[in-house]
Write a structure and sequence with these properties.
About 40% of the residues lie in helices and about 15% in strands. It has about 200 residues and is an alpha+beta fold. The protein is globular, with a radius of gyration of 19 Å. It starts with a helix and ends with a helix.
Length: about 200
């Protein structure tokens, strides 16, 4: 699948088929994640892969009891290792860069999963302390997200997106047009037309 198509068609999935995901596919998603950019190439992301049902149940209870997650055969906890990033970048590194780096890794993982025909959802609704206890995570590390991964039973209808020019400014805040480039919307429309073919 082409990258543009993966980006446009990726969906969050909350219903999964009762099929195991082979390890080589899970590891392909993780390998995509570790190729994300990171501040100072610190690569502070860590991943805990959880497949045993009893362990997934514990995690689900810590995720505001989102029981739909139990149908996902794989849960991946994304953890930020803070020690090195704190030494390099101080409090800003711990509070911001660590989160940004893990978010980039998560997006890579989600896109690779979509490319491989998997469904996935990024979950941020969890009790951080409980996740740390369940996964035996030490204090210098912090959970960032839980990814539910499996073969999707259904893919939610993708939410509509506002036009690109609603989000982009030229040279300064709130300046929506540029005499040289014009508005961005026609380019976005062109991309959508190409992908629909």
């Amino acid at each position: 699948m082409e990258l543009d198509q993966v980006i446009m068609e990726r969906r969050s999935v909350r219903r999964f088929k009762k099929l195991a995901v082979p390890w080589f596919i899970v590891s392909s998603c993780l390998d995509a994640a570790v190729h994300a950019p990171s501040s100072g190439n610190v690569q502070n992301w860590r991943f805990v892969v959880v497949q045993k049902k009893e362990n997934r149940e514990k995690i689900i209870k810590a995720c505001s009891e989102h029981y739909w997650m139990l149908d996902a055969p794989v849960l991946i906890a994304v953890i930020s290792d803070l020690e090195k990033i704190r030494k390099l970048f101080g409090i800003r590194g711990e509070a911001l860069y660590a989160v940004q780096n893990c978010a980039a890794a998560i997006e890579n993982l989600l896109l690779k999963a979509a490319e491989l025909g998997l469904g996935a959802t990024w979950i941020g609704d969890f009790d951080e302390q409980k996740i740390m206890e369940i996964l035996k995570i030490k204090d210098e590390r912090r959970p960032q997200a839980i990814i539910a991964l499996g073969y999707g039973e259904d893919f939610e209808k993708k939410s509509t997106r506002e036009p690109l020019d609603n989000f982009v400014y030229f040279e300064e805040w709130d300046k929506r047009e540029d005499k040289e480039r014009g508005k961005l919307t026609p380019v976005a429309d062109l991309l959508r037309k190409v992908l629909k073919k």
